[in-house]
Design goal:
This protein has 2 domains: 129 residues, NAD(P)-binding Rossmann-like Domain (Rossmann fold), CATH 3.40.50.720; 32 residues, no CATH class. Helices cover 39% and strands 21% of the residues. The longest helix has 20 residues. The protein is globular. It binds NADP nicotinamide-adenine-dinucleotide phosphate.
Length: 188
């Protein structure tokens, strides 16, 4: 499974969960974070400051889209036929609109927005889908159990008090967070 931006809030968890499920994981990050993503379990690590991942990695059968820009299109170059490309960053597709009970106009708009990437995916015989994460008690309980058993660990970059929630969001927006950024609701 290819999980780009392995050092981010999504990547640090996704690498560990994918490894827990038995996947081989490839990721990208910049030089200072290479060691950390290896420690989290990534098998193939591309330092994106040094190399283009699409020139190094190949044979993947799943991609988690986490990098804006042309990251998804490039990721399609490293997948095998029959693979799944699940994007967290869009574009949303018509199937997503249907799942969410949206009307025909929204299905049409999302269909248009995703037309290009779906076409590119089809050319690689891959399936594209958009995912917008929803809190799910059962999934969170299962992840909580893995954390309690120390089979996965949270990577926490910074903890902000609630009064500094705005600064926390601004920090997240820099795109440089190393793991999760936490806003503490109650001061200890
Ligand atoms: N659809 C959904 O439900 C959903 C849910 C959560 C998040 N998202 C989206 O998913 C994306 C990722 O979220 P996140 O929380 O993981 O973001 P994040 O924590 O802000 O990501 C920061 C990390 O990205 C790395 N990075 C930045 N540019 C990179 C590049 N070109 N190649 C490789 N790594 C790069 C940085 O590493 P370096 O400092 O080493 O560059 C940093 O560690 C965001 O766009 C977010 O909005 C969507």
């Amino acid at each position: 499974m290819f999980i780009p931006a392995g050092s981010g809030g999504i990547g640090t968890f996704a690498i560990q969960l994918a490894k827990h499920l038995g996947a081989t994981v490839g990721t990208t990050t910049s030089t200072p974070n290479v060691r950390m993503v290896r420690e989290l379990g990534a098998d193939e690590v591309v330092d994106y400051k040094e190399q283009q991942f699409e020139q190094v990695l190949h044979g993947y059968d799943a991609v988690l889209g986490t990098i804006k820009g042309d990251g998804l299109e490039k990721a399609l170059r490293i997948v095998k036929p029959g693979s799944a490309v699940v994007s967290l960053i869009g574009p949303p597709d018509a199937a997503f609109a249907r799942q969410r009970g949206m009307n025909a106009l929204m299905r049409f708009i999302f269909g248009m927005l995703s037309r290009k990437i779906i076409g590119l995916a089809k050319r690689r015989q891959a399936r594209y889908s958009f995912l917008f994460v929803r809190p799910d008690g059962r999934q969170l309980a299962a992840i909580g159990e893995l954390l309690a058993q120390a089979r996965i660990r949270p990577v926490i970059d910074r903890v902000f008090p609630f009064a500094q929630a705005k600064q926390a969001l601004a920090y997240l927006e820099t795109g440089r967070a190393k793991g999760k950024v936490v806003v503490r609701l109650v001061d200890e």
